[in-house]
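Sat 14:20. Reprocessing the chain from the morning session after the first attempt stalled halfway. Input below, unchanged.
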Amino acid sequence: MSVFDDFVDGIKDIYASRDRRVRIPKFLYDQLHEEAGNEDEVENLLMAILSKRFQMLDDQEREQQEDAQHQIDLVEYYEYLDRYLFATINRNITIGITNELNGRETSYCNYTLKDYRLSKVYRTLKLDLERNEEYYPISFYEIIDIKFNNNGERLKTWIYMPHPMKNWRFYLDFDPNIVGSTTKSGRIFLTKEDYNSINL
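Finished this time. Tokens:
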């Protein structure tokens, strides 16, 4: 580890934001001065180090803000998906239910959506599907994002999960009258209290 790495490691906890005055212990400054050789170079190095650190703090703060906003948006996406899943019960859902078929729309099949469970708390979606009187359950875990494309007749939905599960795509042939109703599905759980209030 170089003296500069030691220096950064020594001062990284001294400042948490650019609003605080930066105080550098003399022994660290002496180390930096010895390595740099002159005052101008010390000042340049200090500015570069502080600039990099403040940029890191800005990036971390922006990421935290973006993640907080994404979590707020996700609640809305879960509620939106719940409304359309509820309106698709006993209607067609078009999906490839294996990893091999996922993404190959020509291989997608029509199933009947019999029921579902959607949990924001545990980031899961369970679909109970039926085709030719055979039962096909499918579950999605660790959901990190949900996207939609609604053409007015069916809802194209993407479920994003971490690698290697990646993402999944399916189509909901929903009933527009049910989508527009105020009836609650009872199948979505946004909080632990919601989830614990029923016997799954």
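The radius of gyration is 27 Å.
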